[in-house]
């Protein structure tokens, strides 16, 4: 069980063992951290969105995105939906934020699926931070599991060789 305030490193690595030479795919490395700096230009922050008459952001801080802006961006919060936007920072500049739809209910399963969709959309990004207001340990574990599963790629027959996976941060 992952606990708040702890750091855990999970995922597959490439090595010289017989097993890694016969590996079927590439697993994303992930590091679970809490209290990481969010909303900076160096990291992409993923914020879950609940669908409904008015989509609701589940961020722990105010992003300055109201319902009117969500409507203009065509953000509905439907499961499987992602939107990449730039959010103004108080100290100046902009930070990339991905709004990931989780559907109508906040469940561990819907968060896991949304994290998987976000991980596929953000494969090339070095650092990813998940921001979820009042997250439980089970919800953090669901986000991490979804990120790992969504970041998996089947590349056995591509001949790309072993690559070091990037490390993602989950908040």
Brief overview:
The chain is of the alpha/beta class. The chain contains 4 helices and 8 strands.
Written overview of the protein:
With 171 residues, this protein is an alpha/beta fold. 22% of the residues lie in helices and 23% in strands. The chain has four helices and eight strands, in the order βαβββαββαβαβ. It has helices spanning 18-21, 67-72, 108-121, 137-150, and strands at residues 8-10, 29-32, 44-50, 56-57, 82-88, 94-103, 128-130, 167-170. Strands 3, 4, 5, 6 and 7 form a five-stranded mixed beta sheet that branches. Strands 1-2-8 form a three-stranded mixed beta sheet, covered by helices on one side. β5 and β6 (94-103) form a beta hairpin. α3 packs parallel to α4 (137-150). The longest helix has 14 residues, at 108-121. It is globular and about 45 Å long. The model is unreliable at 1-24 (pLDDT under 50).
Attribute tags:
171 residues, alpha/beta, five-stranded mixed beta sheet, three-stranded mixed beta sheet, 4 helices
* Class per helix and strand makeup: alpha/beta
Low-pLDDT runs of 5+ residues are: 1-24
| Main sheet characteristics | 5 strands, mixed
What is the helix fraction of residues, given as a range?
Answer: 10-25%
Compute the separation of the termini in Å. 15 Å
How large is the radius of gyration?
A: 17 Å
**What would the average pLDDT be, to the nearest integer?**
77
Number of helices: 4
The share of residues in extended strands comes to 15-25%
Quaternary state of this entry equals single chain
SSE arrangement, N to C: EHEEEHEEHEHE
Number of strands: 8
The backbone outline, from C-alpha atoms, is globular
């Amino acid at each position: 069980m992952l606990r708040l305030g702890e750091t855990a490193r999970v995922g597959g690595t490439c090595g010289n063992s017989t097993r890694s030479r016969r590996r079927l795919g590439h697993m994303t490395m992930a590091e679970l951290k809490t209290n990481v700096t969010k909303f900076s230009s160096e990291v992409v922050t993923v914020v879950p969105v609940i669908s409904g008459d008015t989509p609701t952001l589940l961020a722990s801080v105010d992003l300055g995105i109201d319902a009117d802006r969500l409507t203009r961006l065509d953000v509905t919060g439907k499961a499987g939906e992602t939107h990449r936007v730039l959010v103004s920072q108080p100290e100046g500049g902009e930070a990339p934020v991905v709004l990931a739809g989780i559907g109508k209910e906040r469940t561990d399963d819907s968060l896991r699926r949304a994290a998987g969709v976000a991980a596929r959309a953000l494969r090339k990004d070095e650092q990813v931070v998940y921001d979820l207001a009042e997250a439980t340990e089970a919800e953090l574990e669901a986000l991490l599991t979804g990120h790992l599963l969504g970041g998996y790629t089947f590349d056995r027959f591509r001949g790309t060789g072993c690559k070091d996976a990037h490390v993602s941060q989950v908040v």
